[in-house]
Amino acid sequence: MILPSVSGGGGSAPPPPTQVTVPQSGGALGVAWQRGNALTLFPTRFPPLDRSAGGGAAGSSGGQTQPLTLVSWERSLFEPVFRKLINESAQIFIQLQRGVAPGCRDVGRDFYLQISRQYRSVIRDCQELLDGAGADPNTMAVDGTGDTPSVAQSELLYKLELIWNLVEVLVIETRPVSKNGIILPQLVQWCCLHFPEADQKARHVLTENPEQPEMHAHFWDALLLFLIQGRTEQAQKLLRLHSDFGNTEAFGSLDELIRKMPRYSPQLMMSSVDFDFRFKHWQKEVRSRLDEGDFASSHELHRLALVLSGSEEALSEMADKCETWYQWMIGKLLFTQPDVKSYDLSYHAQQAINKFGGLSGMTSLDSILLAVMESDIAQVINELSSTLDNHWFPAHLLDLLYHTDPSAFETNPEDAIAAANACGSLREYLILEYGTCLMSHRSLWQVGALYMDHCPTQGKYRLELLLERIPLDTETKANKIMAMANERGMYSIVGSTCRVMGMQALREKRIGSAMAWALRSQDAQFTTFLADQLLLQYCEEGSFTSADLLDHLGSSMVLSDRLTFLAKYREFHRLCSEEQDFKAAASLLHSLMWSRMAPKYFWVTLLIDALPFVSCQDEVLLSSEQTYELLHCLQEISKDESLPKKQKLLLEEHEPQIRLELSRNLAIALMEEGDEQAITLAR
Amino acid sequence: MYHCETLESHHKDLVHDVSFNWYGNRLATCSSDQSVKIWEWNTDQQSWDCSASWKAHSGSVWKVNWAHPEFGNLIATCSFDRTAAVWEEMPGDSFLLSGTGAPPPSSHGNPNLRTEGDAPAQSHWVKKVTMVDSRTSVTDVKFAPKILGLILATCSADGTLRIYEASDVMNLTNWTLQHEIHTKLPSSSDDATTKGGKVFIYEYHEPSRRWENIETLTSVSDPVHDMAFSPNVGRSFSILGITSKELKIVTLKPKNRDALLSDNPNISERTPFESKYEVKLAGSFNDHKSTVWRICWNFTATILATSGDDGNVRLWKCNYKDNWHCVATLKGDGQSASIRNHPNMTLLKDQSFNNSGMGLNKANANTNANASSFTSGMWK
């Protein structure tokens, strides 16, 4: 993440395409997309040509080919150090969306300010983390520039916070109150916060020359910097440390002027006109004292007084002492136009930039700050997006601004609704980009999904596309994805996830597990296939691998006929082995076959299963009618040409015995039933 | 910032196609050396490992394409040997157990990569079916979107498009040739001088159970090398990218959505000349300043990648005013050296398509299956 120096351009034309050079020989490059912001380039030839046909020339590359290049971007956020930034900003984002959700109490400026400050504090936290990492000798730079990557990134975060703070001051804090409100106090405060140079210089002066501070090279600079940051108390304190203070009239005079300087404060409930009157009166006094030669004795004092008087010349000279154009501009405005309105800021900013060498010498940070001062939010986002590697910053910032005042999106909106719509579209675009980027990451995808929920137009579709491409490495992950999809009514993803998991289990020969997934997806075809697999497995091995699952199918067994049969067949086994209810077991066996619920290939097995029941000596378990019907089934199956070979062989082996036992049972059953009939009749 | 890493393919001849699977964690490459290789992303070592490599055809393998994982681990390949094939991955030892299907023709991995312990398990890819209907080189192969089932489209050098369907998704050895479409213009020959449209759009017509030519794009008359429908992302229209002498982006918006939403009987009452789509040229770009050969969408349909004769790969995005523009060019540095730091690629304003929330209808998605297939001037 770096802020390259690009001059601020017009916002209308699309930016020129980024040039990327990849390690590849020249020549044709093929391309294939991966998931997320990643693609693969491969050297190839267009149009494709088969060498064997094209004259049989051997490979020109001498049997070896160029490597593939895998290119990816927007990866900087995936560094572990940004994990906290991502998670905490997501929480703030959600908090904001909840706050503005329809039905919530009307939120005011304070709410947005609080959100804005939370975002800034997250940025500062991350900056501290980076500074901590930078101090760690283990992460020393390897690029030889001396700067560790974390130093550069920490610097970038500092700049981003600077931008956010200015936006907060000029747009979030000021704008909703009144567009014509006085903004300079906030600007001055912003400047103080980010430019501690005056304090540093004062500290140097005091520690290095405590006796005669005025001898220190930075004494007057520090004093001037305090003044142009409007910090009159500090300026007075420093001035009083001068050895000549008290001895010379001039010092007392300047001290008094500084003390008297009118300061605008919203708390004072002072009207703009009233303040203007008092300020002009004060400057008149400064000028008259200058004219009277109060400060003629000291060149330095004279210069400071000139600054106080708002002298163009003195203020212009002062530019050398300022690091940046905005610092100078704010200082200058403090003494020339303290009641500057936000719509005038743009003019002053342009002037300041010209003073500092014009736009061409500006970095993108400068042009972004300029755009903020011009209240050109669209341009701010434009510059940010073309400068930063990812969309974290513009997405969160614009989201907040959109909720604060969507019509502020364009400087001079002819149509407030159109401006708000454009702002909404851009907001959604940025959030989609940011969320999409997170969703391509192994573990951040769940955070990314949260953002999609707050994109009214495309969010749902995008989330659906992204969710179904999350690799299903583990069952836990699959369950998470299904829970998310269920919550959002994306049932096709639920089904698809189950089927993929089922196929995977099947490939690994875990048929029971595959069956569980198939049942969850309610896929009848797949369930039938798996039930068949289980039955075949039973035919081979003579036992069930997934008995537990089959015993607890409940109502889901009706999903497929084959599954119902499988469950019933399993019940038959339980009746025999656990409950020893042979009568019921025999009836069930009969009904499974006679109702034709059993697949044909399984009939042979069922008939063999029936053998012990019909050869039972103690009790008649199957009635004559049932036995007759089983004989019918035997007849049918033995004439069936489509029976698998294996089953056919099995049948050939057992058929005589089955036929014999069935006939015998029929005879016994008939006799017994005859007896019963006779007894009934006799009564 | 761009991050680059290289992967030695160890193919003995030119690579013609590279394709990622659904999840982006596996990669298939195919080459003029007649082989196909499968690569797995190794999360622990952060590297791509070759897990299978085999001779798939007896001619150059032009394309390789993955099926949706719902159908298992399947790829389709097509070749100069006039066949297309579907391959399924068998778990490690399965072909020894199952006894069905012959072991893969040659499934030896790269010996260099097969070190002890940490090497990925060699997987076995079994040929499930060979499509032998074409009498000329099969130039492209693509699975349909999964919503349509397990369907495969192929096209051949003679301009014939074939659509196959697996009769039973659990038994991949049975594929039936469902449709055969001859896209050649009656008067056309292989030279590019043929007048008239070169892009035909076919749609499955339920009542007649046929694919019907519903649209001929008159705006494209130069030979077309590749084309691709954008994935369905909830837009109310389809976007088609076409590459010929230049890149063209076309949108197709259904004129009467009600008629398309269901299999409305009214459709059959339409006169054949009445177009069902409002076709608009969204952009025409000659940034490559030469022939554009390939086109490829990312799966969120937000970025389009093209490769041209100038050796560049360009990435395209659409802004919120529906204007497409190039956002990045990727170019070989002429030597395989280290990478310098690149500025980042991002976009400013974008996609704010006002969606009605309607997904693409079925018939429309059908055409998707055959993207890059309907050109009369596919590479000669």
From TrEMBL, chain A:
One of its GO terms (cellular component) is nuclear membrane. Residues 1-25 are annotated as: Disordered. Functions as a component of the nuclear pore complex (NPC). Component of the nuclear pore complex (NPC). It comes from Tigriopus californicus. InterPro entries: Nucleoporin_Nup85. It is found in: Nucleus, Nuclear pore complex. The keyword Transport applies. Belongs to the nucleoporin Nup85 family. The keyword Manganese does not apply. This is Nuclear pore complex protein Nup85. Keywords: Membrane, mRNA transport, Nuclear pore complex, Nucleus, Protein transport, Translocation, Transport. GO terms for molecular function: structural constituent of nuclear pore. One of its GO terms (biological process) is mRNA export from nucleus. Its main location: nucleus.
TrEMBL record, chain B:
GO terms for biological process: cellular response to amino acid starvation; positive regulation of TORC1 signaling; protein transport. Residues 97-121 are annotated as: Disordered. It is found in: Lysosome; Nucleus envelope. Coiled coil: none annotated. Keywords: Lysosome, Nucleus, Protein transport, Repeat, Transport, WD repeat. Pfam families: WD40 (PF00400). Signal peptide: none annotated. The keyword Protein transport applies. GO terms for cellular component: lysosome; nuclear pore outer ring; Seh1-associated complex. One of its GO terms (molecular function) is structural molecule activity. It comes from the Eukaryota. WD repeats lie at residues 8-49, 285-317. Belongs to the WD repeat SEC13 family. PANTHER family: NUCLEAR PORE COMPLEX PROTEIN SEC13 / SEH1 FAMILY MEMBER, NUCLEOPORIN SEH1. This is Nucleoporin SEH1. It comes from Tigriopus californicus (Marine copepod).
